[in-house]
C-alpha cells in the first residue's frame, strides 16, 4: 500500500480517493488464496515487561538512529516501559519537539558527522537503525559506527529494511529464504546495507537482525488520513498503484515485533514484518473511503480524476505476497492488526476523539 520510508522526515501520503462499486470485505473470512507459510500457532507473550523486574530500568538503553515515524512510535513504547531512549534527527525544530516528549535527541548528519554523537551510541545496550540508504550514496552509517561500537556496550542491533528487496515475484508467496532480486537502485542498496549490518553484528559478537517491513501505516499516516486530506498522487505512488498485491504493516505491530526480538534475540536472522493480508491498493482505499463516508456522510468531495487514479495499463509491477510465518513462529508475535480492515478501523475509531478531522473536511 505505502512505500517503505523510515528516514528522519516523516513520510507524507498523498493519494486521491476514488469511487468504485466496492463491496466491503468481511474480515472474519479468509481470502480465497491463502499463504502456505502462515499457519496459526499458539504464541507466548512477548512483552518486555516480563524480563527480570529486579534489574534496574537504566540497564536497558535504546538508541534509535533516525527518529522517523516508526522510530518515534517504537521509542515511545519503550519509554512507557521504563527504557532510557535516545535518538537522532536532522533538524533543530524536530529535535526540540522530540525532547519535549522526553527523549534525548542529537542532531546527526552522516555527511558531516559529529564524533561526540557517535561516541554517545557506544554507551547504549540496544540500537535500531531506521535510516534508509540514499540513491547514489548508499548507507554510510555502518562504516561510521564500526570502530566506536567495537568498544561499546551494545548487545542487540536491529536494521529496518524493506520487502522491496524481493523485487517482482509474479504474485508468488515469498519468505525470508526466497532469493532477493531488487528491481530498483534503492532496493539494491537496502540489500547491501542488510549484509553490512549483519556482518557488523558478527564482528561485534552480538545479536544483529534485519527486519524487512511492508508498507507502513498507522495513526496520521494511512489511507483514511489520505482520503480525509484529499491529497494528490505523487509520481512514486502512481507507480505503486499498478501492483497487484501490497504487503503492509501497522506501526503498532512493527513495534511489538521489535520488542519481541529484543526479548528473544537471534543472531543474523532476517524477519519479514507484514500482516496476513497482502491486498491490492485500490481495495484498501475503497474500504477506507467507506469508513470515512460512514463516519462523516457527504463530507468527501469526488475529484474528476479519482476514477482514473487506479486505472493502469500493462502488467502489475512488483507483485508478491510476503509471508510472516517466521515472525510468528520464532518471535511469537500475535498481530494486533492482522489485516488492513482491522488497522484502518482502529485508526478511524481513534479519530472519534479528535475534532480536527471532521472540521478540516471540505
UniProtKB/TrEMBL annotation:
Source organism per UniProt: Lithocarpus litseifolius
InterPro entries (UniProt xref): Epimerase_deHydtase, NAD(P)-bd_dom_sf
UniProt key word Isomerase: yes
Protein name from the UniProt record: NAD-dependent epimerase/dehydratase domain-containing protein
Region of interest (Disordered), residue spans: 303-322
Pfam families: Epimerase
Molecular function in Gene Ontology: isomerase activity
Protein's UniProt keywords contain Isomerase: yes
